[in-house]
Amino acid sequence: MTQAGASPLGKILVTGATGRVGRALVDELLNRSASVVVLTRSPEAAQRLWPDGRVEIRVGDLADRDTLATVGEGIQTLFHLASYAPRPDEPDLYNAPGHWSVTAEGTRNLLSQLDASGLGGARLERILYVSTIKAMGDKIGAMGRPADEDAPPEPDTLYGQAKLTAERAVFDFGDKAGITASVLRLPMVYGLGREGNIVRMIEAVARGRFPPWPRIENRRSAVHIEDVIAGILLVAEHPNSAGETYCVTDGRTYSTRWIYERIRLALGRPIPAWSVPFWMLKAAAAVGSAGERLLGRRMPLTLDGLSKLAGDAWYSSGKLERGLGFTPKHSLESEIPLLVRRMADRPSPGHGPRHDRSADSG
């Protein structure tokens, strides 16, 4: 992915830079000799990630408009990735109130303070908002065919509604300011080292905490982090991306049963001849949902979580491939054995897997 020479994007501001996708994007931009500014509430975290001084750190909080007054000075390109990340113990992941205040209202706060006039020494030229397939809604991804960007969005969670609102705010700002605005929607992201849903599933299967999954042929899309970064930079640099929304996937579909079997094989374990009946999983999930409501904390299995594991979330990146020439380079077929080998080389801490609740991992 790396290429020599200065970036054609000018001085770049990245929000959400300390998140999993944001970190990978900043690292690649630095590899490309770009001038990078990050917006963060935690300058200490940014300094730990990039201690060599190659990244300019600007402190601000999307939820506090007054802290963003000078954040856009001298910026030509904005990569907006920031969104609300629920606490590890926060129930109802996709309907946490913070999604609206940070993702929707926070995006409006940021846009209201950006300098598109050139007063900061450079004129803001482009914005790329990194969003999610949840902005389209789960029903769109369960139509029996791969959903594309032109399907009318029907977000059914506060997370999806906040993301869609932020997308529309970005396009409105671009139209009014006369700058290039684009959106890239992500499904589940893998290739995040020891983070993400696939890693947690591997750990659960390895420890005997993930039951033999029923043979439900659901279809879900996913994408490798390197393909995400390639897609982000392709959209940002392409002259035909203005005003467009794209989905990025690895071009394949996966069922939970298929992932379960590939994990078992990669671990060197036989595939069980039996599976847990779906009705039994649903009953356990109902108990978990009730417990979550009563106790006010996240439970291992809920009805919402089960619907994600058993339902479809099938999306197409055909527009990105046909229109901009995007070609994914990774798949879960090769990634799962690689992850298993890495986990074998570096055992998990004794306290168990980290429960990273960021929606970047789908």
From TrEMBL:
<dbReference type="GO" id="GO:0004029">
    <property type="term" value="F:aldehyde dehydrogenase (NAD+) activity"/>
</dbReference>
<dbReference type="InterPro" id="IPR051783">
    <property type="entry name" value="NAD(P)-dependent_oxidoreduct"/>
</dbReference>
<protein>
    <submittedName>
        <fullName>NAD-dependent epimerase/dehydratase</fullName>
    </submittedName>
</protein>
<feature type="domain" description="NAD-dependent epimerase/dehydratase">
    <location>
        <begin position="12"/>
        <end position="246"/>
    </location>
</feature>
<dbReference type="Pfam" id="PF01370">
    <property type="entry name" value="Epimerase"/>
</dbReference>
<dbReference type="InterPro" id="IPR036291">
    <property type="entry name" value="NAD(P)-bd_dom_sf"/>
</dbReference>
<dbReference type="GO" id="GO:0005737">
    <property type="term" value="C:cytoplasm"/>
</dbReference>
<dbReference type="InterPro" id="IPR001509">
    <property type="entry name" value="Epimerase_deHydtase"/>
</dbReference>
